[in-house]
């Protein structure tokens, strides 16, 4: 290996490379946005304006009403108004 080259992923038992460290966590998109349909409370709290109570309300609403079809659906969640939605719009996605 030449100086400056990255080393290949370490092999797991069985000889397969371990690529899990670079995988995108569930609930987060490759572009860094949070998928409001799959994110857990900790992931939701990474968005500006979302604390533990609001994160749980997002999850509860999703469980009761099914998947969000748009980030705008968050307006139906108690505690999320137009101002909060504008803070988190660029950080969230509904897929």
TrEMBL record:
GO terms for cellular component: type II protein secretion system complex. Residues 42-61, 72-91 form the Helix-hairpin-helix DNA-binding motif class domain. One of its GO terms (molecular function) is DNA binding. Residues 1-34 are annotated as: Disordered. InterPro entries: Competence_ComEA_HhH, Endo/Exo/Phosphatase_dom_1, Hlx-hairpin-Hlx_DNA-bd_motif, RuvA_2-like. Coiled coil: none annotated. GO terms for biological process: DNA repair; protein secretion by the type II secretion system. PANTHER family: ENDONUCLEASE/EXONUCLEASE/PHOSPHATASE FAMILY DOMAIN-CONTAINING PROTEIN 1, ENDONUCLEASE_EXONUCLEASE_PHOSPHATASE FAMILY DOMAIN-CONTAINING PROTEIN 1. This is Competence protein ComEA. The lineage of its organism: Bacteria, Bacillati, Actinomycetota, Actinomycetes, Bifidobacteriales.
């Amino acid at each position: 290996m030449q100086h400056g080259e990255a080393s290949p992923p370490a092999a797991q038992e069985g000889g397969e490379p371990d690529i899990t460290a670079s995988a995108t966590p569930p609930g987060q998109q490759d572009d860094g946005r949070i998928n409001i349909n799959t994110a857990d409370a900790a992931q939701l709290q990474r968005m500006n304006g979302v604390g533990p109570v609001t994160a749980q309300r997002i999850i509860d609403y999703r469980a009761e009403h099914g998947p969000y079809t748009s980030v705008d659906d968050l307006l139906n969640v108690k505690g999320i108004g137009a101002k909060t939605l504008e803070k988190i719009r660029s950080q969230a996605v509904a897929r």
